[in-house]
Amino acid sequence: MTRLSIIILSYNTKQYLEQVLRSLARVKKNDWEVIVVDNASQDGSAQMVKEEFPFVKCIMNKKNVGFSAGNNSGIRRAQGAYVLLLNSDTEVHDAESIPTLLSYMDKHPDVGVVTPKVVLADGTMDMASHQTWKGVEYTHEVDACTAAAMLVRAAAIDEVGLLDEQFFMYGEDLDWCYRFRKAGWKIVYNPEATIIHHKNKSGVQVETNDEIGKMTKKQATSQFFDTMELFYRKHYGKVYPRWFLGVVQFGVRCIRSMKGV
What's the mean pLDDT in 250-259? Predict the structure, then answer.
């Protein structure tokens, strides 16, 4: 029986994908499966996975379908009682981090999602994994966490559904967490487990041409603001009056203008 399905979405992140897979190869248990979903990368990363990591199951999409749809491809194939979403730009150095999260979930059946302490390459904390005012050194509930490192109970996914594919990139984790909490599942931050995140490597295509790279980053920033508006319309559009939605949209668009997107 498969206990854990680890799903890694990749889009032109060969160097970082190799790093995370090597880190997983050192800590992987026999009842874990690792699934890499490649969103039509052009950097040879899918071939690298096939040649160097035979334990990995690889799903190759014909085009870049985005973060939500890409991860959903892996979730549909997953056999585990738990599903761990990992960004391709993460690393798992501590062999006990993932088992710690699994043990916590086993002991707390009301928890649908648990996230580790996510640390950036410079040693500082990625606050996206801890979206609350509470202290970062003890285990507690949070409103939401980052999909860069997110362990989810398969039974909770069966109840709530897959990631919303309206969210192409960014915001899908907030939306998912909102839906889990609305269904009564708890979301917990557990700093006894730690994962490293080389942030902003998996969401933006790396190009050799500087102008293309800049344009890709600009498009990613624009997508971020699109996501803010989408999330608000989906979850609050019918809760608050229409004029308030207009105020929110105006605020988002002012920030967009300041950012040049």
Answer: 70
pLDDT of 205: 47
Residues 202, 9: contact at Cβ < 8 Å?
A: yes
Radius of gyration of the chain measured on its C-alpha atoms: 18
- The string of pLDDT tens digits covering residues 20-75 is 999 999 999 999 999 999 999 999 999 999 999 999 999 999 999 999 999 999 99
For domain 4-197, which architecture applies? Alpha-Beta Complex (3.90)
Question: Which tokens hold the place of 201?
Answer: 């490597």
| 107 pLDDT above the threshold of 70 | yes
Residues composing the chain: 261
Residue 141 and residue 12: Cα distance in Å, rounded?
Answer: 34
pLDDT above 70: percentage of residues in the chain? 85
Per-domain residue ranges of the chain: 4-197, 210-259
Angle among Cα 144, 150, 152 to the nearest 5 degrees reads 95
Q: Residue 125 and residue 115: Cα distance in Å, rounded?
A: 13
Which residues partner with 182 through β-bridges? none
In the predicted structure, residue 247 carries a pLDDT above the cut 80: no
**Cβ-contact 115, 174 below 8 angstroms:** no
